[in-house]
């Protein structure tokens, strides 16, 4: 198992509880309102967040008459206690988080996942995705779960995590790690019972693990759910896999044709060399 070295360690961490990295050590933010204030700015690095928006977020739409003065005191505290004096910058009508060469764990995760999507080599994609997933320390914005103002951001970051997990299982299937991928695929398929692509991956992993009957059962159960809840049949891609499993299509094997992701075959140069050596021996 390999990971990618981070060239830009995050200065602000949101993928879990909200923390500030000071001298290499992560420090939680003291006080719920200060935490909300910092998170509101860190989620919009480089963008001015208005004072009115900040007060609405920090006091959950019920800002008292003294909110503006209190907000300014919270900003001063964050600047002083967490060495954010040059990063939380006052602008006309609000504040902006200016990180310069630093970044947040959210941005690091987004970049790693984006690079994985573009990677031609599934081994590289897997390394990038594993690294991205290590950035999550639990539910995103965990200490702000009681503030509805952060619900949408928390859901978005949760979906980003699920996306990374889904892409990682696809990359693992492409490099022949179907046994490793199986437990994760079972969790994902249960979490998203109508997601055809996840069930396609699960069917393929089961078949490659010598569990044809279970792979067929996954298709059968998915078809029943889709018909019952959406009134549709599985897509041709899933249906074609079902037929290929029924006839023991040899192209489904790992060392045959690589699986298709996004309409393209994924196969690294090292994998091609390995396949060709095996073909010459046979």
TrEMBL record:
This is OmpR/PhoB-type domain-containing protein. Belongs to the AfsR/DnrI/RedD regulatory family. GO terms for molecular function: DNA binding. Residues 104-246 form the Bacterial transcriptional activator domain. Residues 26-97 form the OmpR/PhoB-type domain. It holds the Pfam family Trans_reg_C. One of its GO terms (biological process) is phosphorelay signal transduction system. Keywords: DNA-binding, Transcription, Transcription regulation. InterPro entries: AfsR-DnrI-RedD_regulator (IPR051677), BTAD (IPR005158), OmpR/PhoB-type_DNA-bd (IPR001867), Sig_transdc_resp-reg_C-effctor (IPR016032), TPR-like_helical_dom_sf (IPR011990), WH-like_DNA-bd_sf (IPR036388).
